[in-house]
Amino acid sequence: MAVQKDIGFILRSFNFRETSKIAYIYTRQRGKIGGLFKGFRLKRQHFSTPLDIFSLNEFVYYPSRSNLHLVSAAELIDNYSYLRDIPSRFYLASYMMELVDKIMPFHYPQEEIFGLIKVIFDNFSTYSLANSLAIFQIKILNLTGFRPSLTTCLRCSHAVEKEGYFSFRLGGMLCLKCFSADPQADKVSADIIASLRYMRDKDFPQVYNLKPSPSTMNSILKMLDAFISYHLQARLRSKIFLEVFV
Ligand SMILES: [Zn+2]
Fold first, then answer.
1. CA of residue 231 to ligand 1 center, whole Å
2. How far is the CA of 166 from the centre of ligand 1 (A)?
3. What residue ranges define each of the domains in the chain, with the CATH number in brackets?
4. Per-residue confidence at 245, pLDDT binned at 50, 70, 90?
5. Where are the alpha helices (DSSP H) in 64-205?
6. Interatomic CA distance for residues 164 and 190, integer angstroms
7. How far is the CA of 202 from the centre of ligand 1 (A)?
8. For the segment 137-150, what is each residue's pLDDT rounded down to a tens digit?
9. Which of 68, 102, 171, 193 has an alpha carbon within 20 to 30 A of 19's alpha carbon?
């Protein structure tokens, strides 16, 4: 295959052998890919980027059949310095990368996910950390196979209009009649259900118009976190640091 040019966010990177580096990248055209940067640590001119986590870069690479592609050139587009100067922002952006890395298989392009990362980064300074976090989580779950059911009861398929129970284990709402299907399910108010649906369904920038009360937001973040931890079977490292701030 011919040489490819693409842009992408650095999900993580690590040193490889004596002088090289490997980075996992969420690219616009091919989704998650692995990049091998041969001789990267010799500071060659064709790599004009530090490959920092969550930076956006342009890459020229040779596609291979494996998950790892030889990158021949890389250039920094945006280092998002305003996300690095403040610890809360740094951990949120790092968490977003960790979640994308965990949730996305290799070579599964979804331009909406690329766009979602970018729009959240671009609006970081304007909106609250909790809002950015919840919107990112619910939208990425919805764009992948992890879509929590928020409209109908998982057990009887009746609409859950007002209050109901949220089962992170079963993957969504249970109605007031079926809640015993999961003894661990938490009761949730109509306000929480409506807020979650709004964040899932509205586009940018209207999605930011919703400003849930601190207690509603707190419940939403707990539900999403329980859902993600259970279904990905992973406690994300950056989330532990992020919890200090949200
Ligand atoms: Zn039901």
1. 22
2. 12
3. 4-79 (2.40.50.140), 82-242 (1.20.1440.120)
4. confident
5. 81-84, 87-103, 111-122, 129-143, 190-201
6. 8
7. 26
8. 999 999 998 889 99
9. 102
